[in-house]
Amino acid sequence: MLRVGVFGVGHLGKFHLNNWKSIEEVNISGFFDPSDEISAEVEEKYGIKRFPSAEELMEICDIVDIAAPTTYHFDLCKMAILKSKHVFVEKPMAHTMDEAREIVKLVKEADVKFQVGHVERFNPAFIATKEYISQPMFIEVHRLAQFNPRGTDVSVILDLMIHDIDIILSIVKSNVKHLSASGVTVLSDTPDIANVRIEFDNGCVANLTSSRISMKKMRKMRFFQKDAYIGIDFLSKKTEVIRYKTEKDKNALTFDIDTGHGAKTIAVIAPEVKESNAILDELRSFVQAIHSDLTPRVSELDGYLAMEVAHQILDKIKKNQPN
Ligand SMILES: NC(=O)c1ccc[n+]([C@@H]2O[C@H](COP(=O)([O-])OP(=O)(O)OC[C@H]3O[C@@H](n4cnc5c(N)ncnc54)[C@H](O)[C@@H]3O)[C@@H](O)[C@H]2O)c1
């Protein structure tokens, strides 16, 4: 039985507690959170022991689950890795690139499992459509949220856009060639809304818009490639694929298009999305990686690469600020 300690039991930490409870191979040893108010609520509601310090809880667990604000991720990760504990840390894995670099080095030296909470990789709508995506040349992304002071310790790039950066890097296996970005700081101390264009060496272009000051929520990603259009709604979990009809599309809705050089049959497909709990799936997947001695689905290197692009974007935004 693996023993897990949860560090930070605010909004997301409580979801983690609920999900750890339903993983058979894991026992929750306790939690650490500096807030007396939140801790009292969690102790009463979940019946889980509060530890007086992060150090004391770390001593007695095998998995350190970090859901504290981003600016605390590095210190907690470092402490855990130096104690040879497996670490699950919420996204982004750290705040600065120096911190991310140090974490990658420490994980390698300690030979522990390390997973970053890029939970959209486990979103059932993404999983259902992934097999249709091959060599996209143009990607259009919108991730919009209403304002909430939670998460504003970092910019919208590290808070929200990092989800999409990670998904795109998991698909486009090519280096970033050029990047342009513009962002505006409105309600917090860092950019709250941003638009970014990433050009990859293989010719793919990704256009990302993220906002945490919108009136409505939206989490959409659209891929355009030679033979298909693929749309994913990460929020409503809806999918859409429109492509030239293939052998596999026998039952799909079809229509014909006169291209001027003959007719083409187009298939409209809605890949079936299995109902699932993405947080439970990512935590289970981490436990599986520990048991089977495998690299976690979203490793420290994945977390590092997403942060590297995020920081390039932040640098561009800084340079483009009006005087
Ligand atoms: N994967 C996702 O989709 C997703 C969604 C929301 C938040 N997050 C990430 O989760 C993390 C927490 O976000 P949240 O929305 O739950 O914030 P929150 O403010 O609701 O909760 C953070 C909790 O951590 C506690 N805390 C502060 N310092 C701590 C420390 N040194 N050690 C342990 N606990 C400490 C706070 O008291 C608070 O209870 C952030 O890194 C955020 O980016 C990820």
String of helices and strands: EHEHHEHEHEHEHEEEEEEEEHH
Distance between the termini: 57 Å
Task: Tell me the name of the CATH class of the largest domain.
Answer: Alpha Beta
Mean pLDDT: 96
Largest sheet: 9 strands, mixed
CATH topology of the largest domain: Rossmann fold
In total, how many domains does the architecture comprise? Answer: 2
Gyration radius (Cα, Å) is 21 Å
| Spatial shape | globular
Number of strands: 14
Biggest β-sheet: strands ordered side by side in the sheet: 7-8-9-6-10-11-12-14-13
For the record, the CATH architecture of the largest domain stands as 3-Layer(aba) Sandwich
Low-confidence stretches: none
The helix/strand class is alpha/beta
* Fourth-tier CATH superfamily name of the largest domain: NAD(P)-binding Rossmann-like Domain
Number of helices: 9
List the helices and strands and how they pair.
Elements: E1 2-7, H1 11-21, E2 26-32, H2 36-46, H3 54-59, E3 63-66, H4 73-82, E4 86-90, H5 97-110, E5 114-117, H6 124-129, E6 138-144, H7 156-171, E7 176-184, E8 193-200, E9 205-211, E10 218-225, E11 228-233, E12 238-244, E13 253-258, E14 263-269, H8 278-292, H9 300-319
Parallel strand pairs: 1-2, 1-3, 3-4, 4-5, 6-9
Antiparallel strand pairs: 6-10, 7-8, 8-9, 10-11, 11-12, 12-14, 13-14
Nicotinamide-adenine-dinucleotide (NAD) binds next to helix 1.
